[in-house]
Queue: 2 jobs
Job 1
Amino acid sequence: MDRRTFLKLAGMGSLTFASACTLESEKKLYSLVKNQDDMVSGKANWYAGTCRRCPAGCGVLAKNREGRVIKLEGNPLHPVNRGKLCIRGQSGLQAVYHPERPKKPRIKQDGRWQALSFEEAIVRLAEKTRSAAARGKNRVRMLTCLEGDVCMGLFEKSMAALNGTAPLVFEPFSHEHLRTANQAVFGVSGLPSYRLENADCLVSFGADFLETWLSPVEYARRFKAMHAYADGKKGRFFYVSPWRGLTGANADAWLSCRPAAEAVICLGLIRQVLARKGSSGISTQVARQIRAVCQPYTREKVIEFSGVDPSGYDQMAEALLRAKDPLILGAGTLGRGRGDLQANIAANLLNFVLDPQLGKIDFTRRHRAEKAAGYGEIAAFFDQLAGNPPDVLLLNNVNPVYALPPEMDTSGILGSKQMFTVCFSNFMDETAQRADMVFPVSMALESWDEYGAYPDLLSFCQPAMKPLYGAPQIGDVLLRIAPDGTFENKDAKQELISRVQERWGISDTGAWLQAVRAGGRFEHAEASAGASGPAVTTAFQSWFEDPSELIRSESLLFAALPSVRFFDGRDAHIPWLCEIPDPVSKVAWQSPVLMHPETARKYGVRTGDGINLINRSGAVSAPVYETRYIQPGLAGIQAGQGHAVPGKYSGGRGANPFSLFSLKRPADAKTAFYAADPLRLEKSGQRQKLASTAGSMDPHGRKIALTMTLSDLAAPPGPEKHGLAMHDFPLTLPMPEGYDAHRDFYPPHDHADYRWAMVVDLDRCIGCSACAAACYAENNLAVVGEQEIINGREMSWMHIEHYQQMDRPDQPIFLPMLCQHCDNAPCESVCPVFAPHHNKEGLNNQIYNRCIGTRFCAQNCPYKVRRFNWHDWNWPEPLNLQLNPDVTVRSKGVMEKCSFCVQRIKTAHGHAKDENRKIKDGEVIPACVQTCPTGALVFGSLMDADSRVSKLVKDRRAYQVMGYLNTKPAVIYLKKVVHEIR
Amino acid sequence: MEKLSFAEIDNTVNATLEPPGRMYWTVVALLFCGVLVGAACWGWQILVGIGAGGQNSPVNWGTYLINFVFWVGIAHSGTLISAILYLLRAGWRNPIARAAETMTVFAVCTAGLFPFIHLGRVWMVYYMLPVPNQRTLWPNFQSPLMFDVVAISTYLIVSVLFWYTGMLPDFAVIRDRAAGVRKKIFTVLSLGWTGRYEQWRHYSRGYLLFAALATPLVISVHSVVSWDFALGVAPGWHTTIFAPYFVAGAIHSGLAMVLTLMIPMRRIFNAQRIITMHVLESVAKTIVFTGLIVGFAYATEYFIAWYSRNSVEMEVFAFRSTGDFALQYWIMVICNSLVPLLFFIKRIRTSILWLFAISIAVNIGMWFERFVIIISSVARDFLPHAWGDYAPTGIEYGIMLGSFCLFFFLFFLFVKHLPSISMTEIKELQHQAGTHD
């Protein structure tokens, strides 16, 4: 080769090499040339609305950035949730941007789906409905989820015009037993409000008011009003149930009992109350009947039949008798059997004998969920569909195929060729799969609507963004498919305006705008105090029967358990909800069979063993999870998962407990109910690793999640002895005054104007994990999936850690664990490139661009809050539209962790600078603090002596997790206050 | 040592440089394939992220750092033999000093790769270089990882220079006997060595100087490596015994590796008369000594954990010997501190088979020592809720295979192309023994 050829080849070669290796394709940022009036790039607009993920109907504020909603927060004005949201509410956004959300209507032809345009679908549907209506009465039927009054009115009007009966409201969690019990005892077939905040002793016979019962965010707040330590007092809460879920985990004592034995315990308590307090205030006739019902339930009998722990029972009875304001709640949402109905009736009676005025039960503020049809009505509806199929069946956002017992054959009925089934749904769930047409409609964040959970509560839904795929809202569809001339208004929004005008008297534009801006009209919503309880009927007697069969059962019983994450299964496809573990079991992505270790031993299985549970109705297979929080002899699966549909997130994941239930319609009974027949357990021979995020729930005697008894708090503080060991190391604030030349190697940090810190009140934390979901939404946290969670690679910046209490290992305690923003941070000194950086305001910043991924910081972090990007995580489109543009999306190979929502701090700095002032206390609210339903988290600056955090750190309960490592954390915990054991 | 004439020594050593046979090239090719497997695994890991390995939260460090410490440890006894024993005038080190020093150089090279493999963003590794730049970023010299960068690079430079200096007179011998291209290469390599008195004087001064420079490095480099752990707060790491414990461990593993390499080498090259049983026996005796030190360190760790009454510390050590990694722990204890005690028996320490088997056992034991230290402490550290587990993945095993192949690949190339036994030093030995005639 000569010199020239060499040079040519070398030149060509290097050029080819250079041009072939381009970086990722270029991404351009365009700014809008012509902005919309209300849109400023980089500035968020907030729209008030209503969360429609469950019937609670919390008020939300939707944060819209550049035309897309990127975050939901509670509406502080809204009376139901007062600015807070639960884990599901926070995650509702991912339903809008779900990658499997159908973009267009589809129709089934010869067993295959064909896409249609929205217009075409409406025309086709209108043809069907109108011709069906012409054929006679009831040829068009409708099953809907619970909707607001205006929407329901519209449905009713359309259905009437189509010659049909009013639509039936189907909610899997219909609280029917509570309603029936109220009918039986108080003669009111409805769901009252319970004033938990006024009680000083609360007993729940399974009511899971922190998970799914009625209105979880509202009741979490009301519960903490009575159960948080204040003024030297703290109410008592007993939980009586065969299972201890999130609500039970917050109880001062959990009384485990045999399934369906709650009523027995409750009747025993009634007997004791009547014996001790007499029946003053109760009419003699009623008193006689109550006595007759509870007479057989002596203490011994109660203990024999229910299997409850005698000393626990005595303690509860004693506490209840001493209490000034006791309140009893009945069975949980998922209580579907006869025993749960009895428990509800007995709970009503106990409330009545304790307080004949029923001062803490508000029958004027009744919950909208009472409008849902009963089990019997639903069964009758499907019987009619099977016997005499209508021509068109409209299904609005319901999934009966999943939620109803398999023996009802909803799947076969809906799949029938004789009727044209239309599913208005935004997810191809089991029901949608069987429909003839799937019509995706706009969701609550994309449409005009109204939903008030209580009478007189006007709570709007308004389009916080353009419908993602341009879908019309269901009101508009029904308006179009009804015969012409049915409605005088041209669309659903007009319909809403005129109804609101009629009912709430909002007549002028100004009032309307004001109401829409606020999210509704809230003045009347809570003005119902002083209403006295209704008269007590005597229809309850016939419900109780001989309890001796409770102890006869030797076979394995089954219970469906409420889940704070999946509700009735409608949220099982939402990535964040799959990814954030259940707060009690700490298992993500899966729904294992919860089983007492004794039961597991009896059947020769252990945690992780695959088993099949089989009964007359069906079979499920799932891995075993041994826990002491369930009664021996009972197997339980949390409801929500186990969807038999294709799909990345919900498809084939977990097990559906509803498939083990069957419908019971006793000939003599006035109500139908569901029950699971006893189970047969088979080992499947496979083992499955549980996607658990908890290493150990035993604190191993370490200074992590601490408690303090009420009497310790009542006693005057003694002289404190400080040392350098784990349990006597003094509270050392992350401030210059926390510097001690004897202990510290590095000089103290000086801070400019602010030293950000957080106070976490363990006494208020209920473990609901809403904070974790808020963090996922705000900070663009990645969803890593089941396998990576098993590998130990979850990315959550906020962990709700579940520990046993140190002094009472049978009692759980929740500890929110996030970056402690230590003043003496072990992560900072070990990074070779200064990626963890201590800023002037005390924040421990993580500079992603600087990080090279040595992972030394994570190794050295005693709190294990640092999360490494093991891969490039992805957001399947359009989930990426939800990403917060103020927060970097991290790439593989860098470390990340809680930033105290530094973007929010920066925004506050901007505002303060504009107004030439300092940031005010309470102006910076990180996402987790914002959503905490019980106000357990408080954020602020320690440099401000008047800030809430500065005051709270002086509390006697203040301590730092493992402060003895001299890390000087800026997250200061307040010990949980517990009642002493007698 | 029996009598050997200078010519015999030269002949024996030069015989190792005869053109190798097919068998040799097959082995070299296989080793190279192993290196390629490791490279491919690393490439894949760079593509998909560190998640290709088994590390997780809380076990953020896995086999990459285990191998790093392992190879750095191997390197140390090379320097011990070539430098410290030189200064101590231990004559028995002369026949194996060259091979041991070579082992040092290649082991440091192999070890030096692992911090790169370990990094999440290896393409940004230059952020650690203390060069003035427009980003006005400066490395954090508080970080033990920066100590590492300095220590390892210093060690590599000093070892290479020491190694090269020692080979100069031998290169000249080869040059004088070679022809053709080989002669040209060795002419350049021998830097004009003629064996004049002046050259010998400078040479021996220089060699002594490098030996004196390398000696503190044996102690300091592995102390620095141990501070990667000891300066962290994790229980089981945060302890003052780590530096001597690591240095002793390093020499322990390195001596074992010397045996592992020498025993086949002396057989293949028929160098039994140079690398005598006395030499091997002396290495074995030193292994007994270092084995006792590491055994003492294991016991001390438990004593300190118990004596501290620190529940976190006690939990970690209870977990080490009884928990998920108990098997690895007991492999470590048995192979490192119990098995070498067999060398107390003369029959065993003079049996080639026993020597070889025990050297392999110590190598395995020392690998698991690093596994136990690195994995088990963080798997059970302060926060019980974060406790986790660890198992290496195929990618990690691939990279580990690649690293072993790389080391042996380089060593194989070395023994057939450079003088693997120091002719100069053997001659000195003969001279000192007064056997030269």
Job 2
Amino acid sequence: MKTMFSYIKPYKWFAVIAISLMLVELAVELMQPLIIKKIIDDGIVLQDSATVWLWGSIMMLIAFLGFIAGITNSFFSAHASQSFAFDLRNALFKKVQSFTMTTFLRFPTAGLITRLTSDVSQVQQVLFMSLRVMLRTPLVVIGSLIMAFYVKPSLAVYLVIGAPFLAIFLLLMVRKGITYFSSVQKRVDRVNRVIQENLQAMRLVKAYLRGMYEASRFEKVANALKVDTSKALRTMEYIQPILLFVMNVSLLVVLWFGAGKIEQGETQIGELVAIVNYALRMTGAFSMFSFIIVFISRAKASADRMEEVLLIEEGLEDDEMDKGLLEVRQRGTLRFDNVSFKYPQTDDFVLRNISFKCEQGEKLAIMGATGSGKSTLLQLLPRFYDTTSGDIFVDGENVKNWSLEKLREEIGYVPQRALLFTGSIHDNVTWGNTAASIEQVQEATIQAQIHDSIQHFPNDYETRVGQKGVNLSGGQKQRLSIARALIRKPEFLILDDSTSALDVKTESALWSALEGEDATMLVVTQKIRTAKGADRILLLEDGLVSAFGTHEELMESSILYRKIATSQQEQGVDDNA
Amino acid sequence: MLKAIREPFGYKNILTKEDIQKKRNKKVDRATNWGSTLGHIWRIVDEQRALLIIVLFMVVASSVFSLLGPYLIGKIIDNHIMKAQFAGLSKLIFGLIAIYIGLSLSLFLQNYWMIGIAQQTIYRMRTGLFTKLQKLPISFFDKRQHGELMSRMTNDIENVSSTLNSTFIQVFSSVLTLVGTLVVMLSMSPLLTLLTMIIIPVMFVATRWITRRTGKLFKEQQRALGALNGMIEESISGQRIVKAFSQEPRMIEEFAEKSTKLRQIGFWSNVYSGGIPKVMNLLNNASFAIVAGVGGLLALKGQVTIGTIVIFSEYARQFTRPLNDLANQFNNVLSAIAGAERVFGIMNEEEEKDLASDKVIHQLQGDVKFNNVSFKYEQTDATHTIKNVSFHVEAGQTAALVGATGAGKTTILQLLARYYEVNNGEITIDDTPIQAISRQNLRSQMAFVLQDPFLFEETVRENIRYGQLNATDEEVEEAARKANAHDFIMKLKNGYDTFLTADGAEISQGQKQLLSIARALVADPVILLLDEATSSIDTVTELKIQEALERLMKGRTSFVIAHRLNTVRQADIVFVMQQGELVEAGTQQELTEKQGIYYKMLEESNA
């Protein structure tokens, strides 16, 4: 919770003013029974109409005073809570953006999203409510009690008989509430996950006739949610009736003894009425308690989850961002020196003792069986992950000495699964280079073999993709994401099997369009035909370099490579065709 | 005045005069058919109706008790304390204790039971909707965004849930309390009652003034929040791209922009909506002052008693609270009903029709014929996705579908699996039209490996077993071996019991495809559909799988789509698709000799 409070700090004066205004409101409310007492004891009993008029008008006046305080409070508390949420949200987002990929692995995507969305609003709402009403509720109770004591201590004492019991009871309920509601939250997550999975996998579910199986799976999680929610809510329902009962009985005790005291002339009627009034106000405030407890329990869970992210100090990219410019010695060269790598929290090495060199403008094809470490190798280059041992040199300089921003500026990365952002085609192509001119955009899309398709879209380059936009085929997405990399004019172009959804004709047109590129290219491919066009081929097997050389050399020396080649010889058409 | 307060905080005014005016004629987010929606909910409540009626009785009881309490206290003050007569006091006190016990008990019970009813109803709605989704045709999902359906399943149902939980009781008890209070007040002092009621029109005017402004603000806030959430989702799931292109600063900047907008709107909706309770408070306090002041003057003339003033001051509070509640609940109820209506909208969607009865079980042989089949996804589409396609694949044969992206290959397979129904022509299996074979029947003998491999958040073992739920562990492993997945699975941390996460970061794209193939193998189908099932798998591994697949395909009809032509070289028959039409068909030998399109494709891929 400490971290949360540090975000309120800049707005503490607004909060203080808001709370002061709320106290004014509260004072108004607490003065009312006191004034009633005046009206009864000094006015009605003494038959003095001027007093009744006076105190009646005062009551009206302070009611307006309370109103103005209340409305002004809205401005201050809205400002404080909105600004708090604004800062918190931005801080969270910045933090998440600075995560290394390794840190990302620690959080499920959905979890990060909820932290930035519903968790922030949850806490914001609680702050807003605290500044306006929530803090008020316990204050009403305490204030009423103090006022009651001020009016007549000997009667007010009966109101606190139940207090210790109630305090323990409420504490217990808060504890229970926090546990129950955090388990409800987990159930909700689970229910949502099953829904999401099913929406994504609807074709699969239908193909295997698992509709009813999924429905029964869902029933299980929905039932768990039902049971837990009922339990949590029902527990909270004990609060109000018990509080009410204790307070009401105290009220009766006050009446009983009050009556006796009036008989003995120790107490005036107005005093008794005032105390009864205070007691009723306390009772009214108590009925808010269960609601507040629910609210606070949920906010506490949210705050904890956000702090988990905010307090991360290691595994951030921040410190890597502003290293000075390096003197580039060997532009466009790449060297892996004895690189080994394993993913965090796993035991097996994915890459072992990888060493190779790439000259400027060279085209390197990377091949190997499924799971041999091809994609992983590519991800080490922009430093998504750091090597476990060994070094990688880009432009002759160890990647660890590069500022991440400068390093990544050199690289055009096309991932295996094309991912586009909501926006127009133009936005997506210029994503990596916002300054690009229309000509540059077209140059890139023509090179990526997607220009013609784009012209057939309803609004050509302004056609929207992603949510509420056109549905692009897998091949179109891949070509767009290639264009996005090309427009950066990178020193290194990395293609992670990024042409798998293209038909042969389009693919060969793409490769010949890339012929003229100056960039050093690293291409993961399954196809010997693509590999043949490369200057050199790196063949991986179980994370080790199995062979490295030209197509001809590998045909000569590598059994595995020959095996791949034979696996791809087409039937019916001989090699000379 | 607003301006003077606004400026120092640096918030722009976002409400224009038109926004406020427009609200008058426009009803936002209201249900169009109240009756049927409420009726629908009533039907879902079903066997709990009796309990619901008991709850209503409890509400009546608690309302009566909460009216009786202050009434008796007033009586005690007037008849006993004022007159210094303590004879019957103990009796009244015990009566009050009984009333308080009754009050607490009836409050507890009504809530306890209502939570049960509400949760059970929500459970039924949730599972009903989910089951319904399972029965809807694929075209339903094509037309809608996942996000929208998700929001139906979560937000809308949540909305109905919270309304059922609290609003139902509150509305009912508010009305009761209101009426009860009014009756008691009138019987005690009509004049004071009238004075208390002065606040009602004031309240209406004030609330209207505010809601006219908040309606627009809430909508804007929802929109700003949606935009922000969308961005969060994209930037997090696309983190790799953000990093690769060093776009973090830009993302942060864009985020701050959206975040600022939300803060602006949030501020105003807080300020305005926060006004309602303040106005209520003012009116509450004012009526209290009126009761005290005027009541005091009346008491001087002996027209009312002090007891009456005490009772009235309490009733004045009880009177405004239900009004306040009703005003608040009104919006909740409206939005909950609108939400429920959207949910039921899906419940009324047409399900996948199945004319074929489940009773006749066809043991399929796998002789597939397309007769002049045409198909388009939307009736409004200008051109057909599939145009007059006819072919015949005999039982046990392997057919390859080749052609450029968008030629209609995947659609052919989806028609065969009856995800969609043909517009013209006919598809038959073993000379029976597929409409006459129930989907259950058809798909139970079919396995479909989809283009994009999907894995559930489950163990590796359960993901494979998905193809055949009662497969033994040995059968699962056998299928994994055949799919060449066994070796890599054994290298995972917990082998077959390794839990896969949503992003499936633990395994590569190719490995995911191997698992989907294993899943199909364990299903042991008569007809096997492979849609680019091996696109991310290296060719050596693919060859190994193919040996297994070839063995498996013996005696089964298979359809294979692949860009890599060698993937399909064991096919008995090749179909070349071009823009929805079948342009070439024949054995590999025939097509090669023909030197047509297929030949050219082969040439290209070998060049």
